[in-house]
Design a protein that fits this description.
The protein has 404 residues and is of the alpha+beta class. The protein is built from twelve helices and 19 strands.
Length: 404
C-alpha cells in the first residue's frame, strides 16, 4: 500500500528535521530520509559545534513546540563585542532591556536531541534513517526516492536538505557560484576563570576571525565558552599538530586575558570554509533549503539561521497554496518561495563575505580605517540598530513562524 506524502525531505539534519516539524504543525505530511544514524548524531562527542540561534529562529522553535525542551540548555547572548585585533575602537552591540537577548547559544547535539524526540512523536513524519537513496525521480504528478533496500517513497514535492554536497541539487543540474576561502575553522570548548557575562566576542585578525561564544556554566559552576578560530588552510595542519598545551597557549595569546586563565575542553575539530550560492533554489517539483542552497562563512554565525528562514518561508508558501487547493509541487508556489528567499540569502551572504575580506587586509592603515568605521557605527544608534536587527533575524519580510 502506497504511503504518498506531501513532502519528501532528503536530509534529516537541523534544517531538514525542523522543516518536517514545522510542516507537520500545519498539517503537512512528510517522509524524512537521512543516511546518518540518529543515535550516532546525538552521541556525546560526535559534533563539538555550537550554534547561535537568533531571536527569529527561537520564535520558530517556540512556534513548533520544542522551545521548552531546549530552554534549559541555551545560554543567552546579552551583547556582542566586535574588535579589530583587540585594538581601541570596538563596537558593542547590546539591545534594550525589553528586547531580550541577541540570541542563544546551543550545542548542536542538544538541538538534534530536541528535534529528533519531537519527530518521533509526530504521526505526520515518517522518518527513514539510516538509509541510502539510490535513485530520485521527479515527474509530472509527483516525486519519488528509491532506498537501498528497494523501498520506494512517494510525495508531491522533493526537498533537498542534505547540506553543502547535496546530491539532490547535483542531480537537478543546478549550478552555483562558489569559492574556497582557503581557511579552516578550529572548534573546541574552553573553560575559563572569569565569567563571560553572556558576551560573545568577535575578534578580527588578518589571518581570520577569532570568535568566543558564551555557553552555560557546567553543573559545578565552571565557566565555559566555545572557540571558533579561523586559520589559513596552509597553516591548519601545523596548528592541528600542536601539542595541546601549546595550542592552549596560542589561543590564550589571542584572547588578551578577557576570560582569564583558560583550559581546553573536549575534542578539537576543524572544518574547511567556503562560499557557495546556487543560481536557483527551485526546480520542477523540487526546492532546496539550508546549506544545499547556500553555504557561508561562519563569521557572523548566521548559516543555520538562514536555513531556518528558508524553512519558515517554504512552510508559509505551502500552507497558503494548499489552502487554495494547490498541489505542494505547484510551480507558482515554488516560484514565490524562490523570489522570497533568493535575495535575502544572497544579501546576508554577500555582507558576510565582504566582512571576511575587509578584515583580512593586513597592515596598519587598513586597520586604522576599519577602526575608524567601527567608531562611527558605535556612535550611530540607527546603524547599530540595523546591525542588531539583522543579527536577530527580525529585519525584512519575516515568515509568520519566525515571529513572536
Amino acid at each position: 500500500m502506497s504511503d504518498k506524502r506531501d513532502l519528501l525531505i532528503l536530509g534529516g539534519g537541523l534544517v531538514g528535521m525542523t522543516l518536517a516539524l514545522a510542516a507537520a504543525r500545519k498539517g503537512i505530511s512528510s517522509h524524512v530520509v537521512d543516511r546518518a544514524d540518529p543515535t550516532e548524531l546525538t552521541a556525546e562527542g560526535f559534533d563539538g559545534r555550537a550554534s547561535a540561534i537568533s531571536t527569529a529562529s527561537w520564535n520558530l522553535f517556540t512556534n513548533i513546540g520544542i522551545a521548552d525542551a531546549l530552554e534549559p540548555f541555551g545560554c543567552p547572548i546579552a551583547s556582542i563585542a566586535v574588535t579589530d585585533g583587540m585594538k581601541p575602537g570596538r563596537i558593542d552591540f547590546q539591545p534594550e532591556e525589553h528586547e531580550g537577548s541577541l540570541g542563544r547559544m546551543f550545542h548542536n547535539r542538544q538541538l538534534r536531541l530536541a528535534l529528533f524526540e519531537a519527530a518521533e512523536k509526530e504521526d505526520l513524519i515518517a522518518w527513514h534513517a539510516p538509509v541510502d537513496v539510490v535513485d530520485r525521480q521527479r515527474g509530472e504528478h509527483g516525486v519519488s526516492a528509491t532506498l537501498g533496500d528497494g523501498t520506494v517513497l512517494e510525495a508531491s514535492l522533493l526537498v533537498g536538505a542534505e547540506g553543502r554536497g547535496s546530491p539532490t541539487r547535483e542531480d537537478a543540474g543546478i549550478s552555483m557560484a562558489k569559492w574556497d576561502y582557503s581557511h579552516r575553522a578550529m572548534i573546541v570548548g574552553l573553560t575559563h576563570s572569569k565569567p563571560h557575562d553572556n558576551v560573545a566576542w568577535e575578534i578580527f585578525y588578518p589571518a581570520g576571525p577569532f570568535a568566543l561564544l558564551p555557553l552555560l556554566d557546567s553543573e559545578d559552576g565552571t565557566h565555559r565558552s566555545a572557540l571558533v578560530w579561523t586559520v589559513a588552510e596552509n597553516d591548519a595542519a601545523g596548528v592541528l599538530a600542536l601539542p595541546r598545551g601549546t595550542f592552549r597557549a596560542e589561543v590564550a595569546k589571542r584572547m588578551h586575558g578577557v576570560l582569564g586563565e583558560i583550559e581546553l575542553e573536549g575534542k578539537l575539530m576543524s572544518y574547511p570554509l567556503s562560499f557557495q550560492h546556487t543560481v536557483k533554489i527551485v526546480g520542477d517539483r523540487m526546492a532546496l533549503v539550508g546549506d544545499a542552497a547556500h553555504g557561508m562563512h561562519p563569521i557572523a554565525g548566521q548559516g543555520l539561521n538562514l536555513g531556518l528562514r528558508d524553512v519558515g518561508a517554504l512552510v508559509e508558501v505551502l500552507v497558503e497554496g494548499m489552502r487554495l487547493g494547490l498541489d505542494p509541487g505547484d510551480a507558482q508556489m515554488l516560484a514565490r518561495y524562490e523570489k522570497w528567499r533568493a535575495l535575502d540569502s544572497l544579501m546576508v551572504m554577500s555582507a558576510t563575505d565582504t566582512l571576511t575580506r575587509l578584515f583580512g587586509i593586513p597592515g596598519k592603515l587598513p586597520s586604522a580605517v576599519r577602526r575608524l568605521g567601527m567608531g562611527v557605527v558605535q556612535r550611530t544608534p540607527p546603524l547599530k540598530r540595523w546591525f542588531m536587527d539583522e543579527a536577530r533575524g527580525v529585519s525584512g519580510k519575516v515568515p509568520e513562524l519566525l515571529k513572536g
